[in-house]
Amino acid sequence: MGCFTGGWVTEQVGRLKKMELPRFKNSLIRIPLKDGYERIPRSKLRHGDSMDLCELIIRYYGKHYGKKVIMDVLRDIRLLRAGKEQAWERSHPRVGRSWPPAPPLGLPAPPWGAGKNSHFIDHHREQLIQRVTAVDGILDLLHGPVLDTEQYQSVRAEKTNQEKMRKLYELVPSWNTDCKDQFYQALKDKHRHLVEELEGK
C-alpha cells in the first residue's frame, strides 16, 4: 500500500495522539459496519502507526465510507462529540509527516527521468485507452497498492475496456509518481509488446 490520496481520512487519523491510537484500534474492530464491508483483522491493526492505520481504513472502506467509520470511532472513544469538530481539530493539530509517503527503495528505475516532460502513463494516454484489452487483469494488480476497493469496483463496473480505461484515467491526476510507476509495471506485465512499441516511438 502507499498510493492512496485519502485527504480528509489521512488528515484525521494523522491527528491521533500516540496514547489514543490503541483506543482507536480497539473501537475500530467492534463498531457496527454497513453490510458488504469486512472488518479489518485484529492482526493487521496490532502494529503500525497512524499512517499505516489510515491505509488500512482506505483499503477496506474507501475514502467516503472510511470518513464515516472514523467519525463513528472518534465518537465511540469520546474524542469527538456532535457539533464539536472544530474543538477536535484544535486539540489535535495536523502532523508534519507528508502524504503520500515516498516511493519504496529498491524498485527498478522507470525508462523516463526528471528531464522528460511527462510520465509514460500521461504521454500515451489516448493510445492506452484505445488499445489496452487486459483491463481487468491490470485492475487486479492495482487493487490494494494503488486502488482502494471502492475505486476498483467503480472502474470494473464499466461495460467496455475503453470505458474502464477512461474511468481509470479519471483517477490518474490524483496519483503520485509511485502510483503511475505501478500502473506502468502492470501494463508491462499484461501488455509488454504494446508498452515496448509505445516506448520506441
TrEMBL record:
Chief place where the protein resides: other
Pyrin domain location: 1-93
Classification via SUPFAM superfamilies: DEATH domain
InterPro entries: CARD, CARD8/ASC/NALP1_CARD, DAPIN, DEATH-like_dom_sf, NLRP_Inflammasome
Occurrences of domain CARD (ranges): 119-201
Keywords: Cytoplasm, Immunity, Inflammasome, Inflammatory response, Innate immunity
Pfam families recorded: CARD, PYRIN
Compartmental location: Inflammasome
Single biological process term from Gene Ontology: regulation of apoptotic process
GO cellular component: canonical inflammasome complex
Name of this protein: Apoptosis-associated speck-like protein containing a CARD
Organism from which the protein derives: Pelusios castaneus
